[in-house]
Amino acid sequence: MAEPIAVPQGTAMFSSLMPIVLIFIVFYFLLIRPQSKKQKEHQKMLEALKKGDRVITASGLYGTVHEIQGNTVKLKISENVNVQMLKSAISAVITETTQIEKK
């Protein structure tokens, strides 16, 4: 009678962990990496914010930066209407190229 072939235990453990490692790699490149890149770009945009910039808030309000105080920003929404909000609530700075792209 033939004896069974012995498979080294290290190889069996490696082959069983391989799908989990591949799933993690796919998640990293499809989800984690793009999200962290987007977050860094948003942080750079907030740091470059200055008085007079036209912005869009996360809630959809359009306004002009009137004053910056640490983590807060005062936006001028219309004549005699200023709103104070967190810097992180600003989602985009409107530039001429942004307006051209919309058209």
Folded structure, characterized:
The protein is an alpha+beta fold. The protein folds into two domains: 8-48; 50-103, SH3 type barrels (Roll). It has helices at 9-47, 96-102, and strands at residues 54-57, 62-69, 72-78, 81-86, 90-94. It has a five-stranded antiparallel beta sheet with strand order 4-3-2-1-5. The longest helix is centred in the first third of the chain and has 39 residues, at 9-47. The mean pLDDT is 86.
Walk me through the topology.
Blueprint: H1 9-47, E1 54-57, E2 62-69, E3 72-78, E4 81-86, E5 90-94, H2 96-102
Order of helices and strands: HEEEEEH
| Distance separating the two termini | 80 Å
Q: How many H/I helical runs?
A: 2
Coarse morphology: rod-shaped
